[in-house]
Amino acid sequence: MSDPQNPAETRPAPGRMARAWQSDLAYSFRHSPVAMISALVVAVLVLSAVFAPWIAPHNPFDPGSLNLMNGFTPPGAPNAFTGDTFLLGTDDQGRDVFSTILYGMRISLFVGFSAVLLAMVIGVVLGLLAGYLGGWVESVIMRTADIQLTFPAILVAMLIFGVAKGITPPEYRDQMAIYVLILAIGLSDWVQFARVVRGATLVEKNRDYVQAARLVGRRPFSIMIRHILPNALNAVLVIATISLALAIIAEATLSFLGVGAPPTKPSLGTLIRIGQGYMFSGEWWILLFPALTLLALALSINLLGDWLRDALNPRLR
Amino acid sequence: MTQPVLSVRDLVVEIPTRHGILRPVDGVSYDIAAGEILGVVGESGAGKSMTGNAVIGLLDRPARIVSGQVLLKGEPIHHLKGAALRKLRGRRMGMIFQDPLTSLNPLLTVGDQLTETILEHLDLSVKQARERAIAALDEVGIPAARQRIDSYPHEFSGGMRQRVVIALALCAEPELIIADEPTTALDVSVQAQIIALLRRLCRERGVAVMLVTHDMGVIAEAADRVAVMYAGRLAELGPVRDVVTQARHPYTAGLMASTPVASQGQKRLRQIPGAMPRLDAVPAGCAFNPRCERAQSRCAQAPGPTLQTCDDRAACWFPITHEQEAAI
Amino acid sequence: MSALIQVENLIRDFDVSKPWLNRVIERVPKAKLRAVADVSFEIQERSVYALVGESGSGKSTIGRIIAGLVGASEGRVVIDGVDIAEQGSADAVRSELQMIFQDPYASLNPRWKVRDIIAEPVAVRGGQIKGLAERLLQQVGLSASDAGKFPHEFSGGQRQRICIARALASNPKIIICDEPTSALDVSVQSQVLNLMTDLREEMGLTYLFISHDLTVVRHMADRIGVLYLGSLVEEAPRDRLFDAPKHPYTRMLFDAAPRMDAFGREVEPPKGEIPDAINPPPGCPYHPRCPLATQVCKEQHPAPRMIGETRVRCHHAE
To answer: Which of A46, A231, A300, B209 is most buried per CB count within 10 Å?
Structure first.
């Protein structure tokens, strides 16, 4: 067969947007209902988190607007003072669960994105160095990665969290908690990126275009950034998507265990922890709705990652 | 006349893509007799491998046979699927691929793979099958076959591995062998050994062989007849000596002339301008007409020339006759 | 006149040992593979020197050592009077040398535009690159408007033209061609070979042409070296080599190569295969397969000697 990669070459060149729409990736997206539904769910959740201050009826972070008398209002019941309806009920402190979920998701997503970004930067840099330089640099980096992999990621995160918390002054602890979370999750998750990037680098560095670049005197650092990295980005993108789901779950787990986001600024995990105490006393909504949101978010991102992996893998096309 | 082992009649293979339907094989017909090697030659994208895969029922989806027939000893086989096809493959049709490593299971010994194939297709005891496997290895020229039968594929060298693949293709005594670029991955000296082996087996066993390759030299040495493919169609089909030395289709003639051997002593090689069309842009009429120096207005009009409608050897409205060639 | 490239007693060993821990546990010594074993030759300015050999003969390694991509274990390469192992002065020589690779699909970065690919050798050195790619594209028979496209939009032959354009960008004197047409179809191969011939004449280039294809080498080369297991077994001017091959390996190679006029040829196929380069046979590397081999071949690696214009490493060649 002649190269089937791009039979579109003889057609007149369309505009940039049209080209993107006709690309293989967009085509595969349009033909995958799972990917489209997942993308829709993710988009709705992310947008409602971003615009939470405009969408949420209450600000759960503002203690002044809360009234303990509203505690444990079931879904659909009215506010004892203003008569507004609490769509998803309230928690023990009288916080509107719907609003808390929206604000909680903001924290979950912020922590997730930032942690993945951190893990990605660390992993990509170390993976490139290990793959391109080889020798003892590679040994040190990859053995460190192997050692870290022998501990469950959540354990590593808890360890980092504990150490970081220990060295932060108490008065800043609640403020710093979220950044410590990002650091903890990010540092526990770089291994995936490093491994994938190292693998891609090992393949690419033996390709002749890299040899050609060496021949004309391009420096190793420049080769890594300009030649190898762009060709490893597909793999990084896939890992990043799947890591995002994992990071959100890791954040929820840490918060659930009480070592993450503080109750005053609850993330989805904190909400689940709070709700878990009332699961069997009749106030099921405090647990159920945050948990469902987390499930929808993580599942959709994961499905999107799976689709992306298949769509970007030329062997499966 | 005896019945050919393989008859391909007006075979059309299509691949539906989102940019339209491609036809990698477009109306190909040929026969292969027992004990004959038919060389199928062409440049990459000409459809030669796809033809072989279509015959043996190994088309990857979404490629499919849309019309035409494949007859094995007169029996249509192009519609077979699943178990019936698997039974036929191996038992009555063997295949040899370019890369011997990918066609052997690295986790099983060579003997296991051979006996498994033999037991699947022939009614023999395990002991008999093993003896037969040893005989098969012996026949393809593996020294000390009895000792080496329990080796794993990676313990053999490239040339020996290709011999094992040939033994595997032959062990159930098939009537037809499809060899897709069997020597391309091998060194010159080993290539010569494999070609000699194929020829000997073909002659002694009376197997029909379809030898797919891009190497004209291999074809010239190994094949009895040759089919030249261009853009999914047969350009020329005839006895190998005639096609190589007195090509009638301008494409075949250009192909032969552009090999470095043919232009020996000249500073520049003869070249055919342009490149083979992509499958989504095959020109109307004769697919070769935009590159052909003999083309006339008729060549660009549908229907294009076929072996049935014009010359008996070349699908060309204005084939090169031998007298003309002498004048060039 | 002195040669443009001098290769003197070149040796290259590759470490093919198992990892350290495996070696300790399995008690196996370090293993090395001698890819290039004591090779010397010279390339005259404006000539085409071809290295032929089968896989594992070391021909690509020699090319890469001369290009500076791989270091030599012993021996030296002198280009234009400068030893390329020297720091500093070798840099200037480097810019006079370019390379064309075998696989046109792997030698162009798929994420770069053709314009940037072609201009890279000049851009890296901070040279003026405006209009350079467009001019070179036309010189190799493509159109200037192709500069804005990506490699996947081209066929194999067109990609190889792009590689040639890149190789020409820095105005080199020497181009190392590592199997430049073996991934191409015959009709495209002839186009690319013709282009290379034309460019050589226009620009006064020197080629080191590495190939396993005897017909291509015979067409292109002025002088040919035949390699077997890292040794240069025979070297001669083109016609001399093809008319009167001296080394038994060269003869075997010529006999085994498929020929267009050998219909149904029934020749005794050559015996044996290339031995394992990690444990090469002692003495002459070819002796296990050689019809002329005697006791001395098993014990002594023959030294190069001249027979007329041919330099051959064989005890028995005449």
So the answer is: B209
